[in-house]
Design a protein that fits this description.
Layout lengths: L2 H15 L30 H15 L1 H14 L10 H9 L3 H19 L19 H4 L7 H14 L7 H14 L11 E4 L14 E7 L3 E6 L2 E6 L3 E3 L4 H18 L6 H10 L9 H13 L9
Antiparallel strand pairs: 1-2, 1-5, 2-3, 3-4
Helix pairs in contact: 3-5, 7-8
């Protein structure tokens, strides 16, 4: 028997049964520690000339919609679109991608800005550098377009004060205008012969008439009577949206409304007539396509309706 070998095995077994000492945590090497340092960016001062240029460019950006409105006004009034387009609406859509109402709002904004910046605003709100605080987008101007000049100035002054001396949001301006309307009589902005679109909102009498256009036949203190292809409706001014058109375009729409009403009064009309009436009754445009004109004329011949164009 090899006894020494047996003793070595026992010794090894005994040694393996002893608890091993816990490993000590690895000590950090000071040389490997990462320290985050935030870099301080020191603002670079602008020269007096650069400051002037910055303010000038900022004002141009803020009032780009005003310059657009001035340009559109001149294009419309001088009919500089006539070499390529029949109507101002077509021109704005094709050349700038503006809807009819977008162009109209930019044009209306010009009068509001001119009023706020030039008429009796010696105590008008201004920034720390002395620049007058004026609207910077159509949303701020839209609620004031139907107000009298003095009311526009009062509304804007209150809106700037409510915004803490800064440019107010369109919502702030709208809230102040709503409060003024509650306590004062706002003049009816519409005139007889103008073209408007019906806005049903909460008026059950206008259910199904959303988007229909009509001719204003009577103007009251707070409402208008509007003639459409299928009848007359007396609605409040908040249920109307003006279609900005030249006088000649309004005349075209007035005549078209008369033609549509004549067809609607035919008791034995074919259902296809109603399809045309409903389609044209929601197309608030001062023109007809070639096919639309042919269809309308064909239906008038079918029911022996005479129509004489007014000069």
């Amino acid at each position: 028997m090899n006894k020494p070998s047996s003793r070595r095995k026992k010794a090894t077994s005994a040694a393996s049964s002893e608890p091993k000492p816990a490993l000590e945590p690895e000590k950090e090497n000071p040389a490997s520690v990462t320290i985050e340092v935030t870099a301080l960016v020191v603002p670079e001062e602008l020269s007096e000339s650069e400051q002037h240029d910055r303010l000038h460019l900022e004002r141009k950006v803020e009032h780009a919609f005003y310059e657009a409105g001035k340009a559109l006004t001149e294009l419309r009034d001088r009919r500089l679109y006539r070499s390529t387009h029949r109507t101002f609406e077509e021109y704005c859509r094709d050349r700038f991608g503006f809807t009819r109402m977008a162009a109209a709002l930019k044009i209306a904004s010009v009068k509001v800005i001119d009023n706020l910046s030039t008429n009796g605003l010696q105590n008008a709100p201004s920034t720390e550098d002395g620049l007058q605080i004026l609207p910077t987008n159509e949303r701020q101007v839209r609620p004031m377009t139907n107000l009298e000049p003095q009311q526009q100035r009062e509304v804007w002054q209150q809106a700037v004060n409510k915004a803490g001396g800064k440019i107010p949001s369109g919502r702030i301006v709208q809230d102040i205008v709503d409060k003024i309307r509650e306590r004062t009589k706002v003049p009816n902005p519409y005139r007889e012969g103008e073209i408007c679109i019906l806005l049903p909102k909460d008026n059950p009498d206008l259910r199904g008439k959303g988007g229909c256009w009509g001719v204003i036949a009577h103007v009251g203190d707070y409402s208008c009577t509007v003639g459409t292809w299928d009848g007359d409706y007396t609605v409040k001014i908040e249920h109307l949206k003006l279609v900005e058109l030249l006088e000649e375009d309004c005349k075209f729409m007035q005549q078209l409304c008369m033609r549509l009403r004549q067809l609607h009064q035919v008791a034995s009309r074919d259902p296809s007539v109603d399809w045309l009436l409903q389609g044209l009754g929601k197309q608030a445009k001062p023109y007809l396509s070639s096919l639309q004109a042919k269809l309308l004329a064909a239906m008038e011949r079918e029911y022996k309706l005479s129509w004489k164009q007014q000069k």
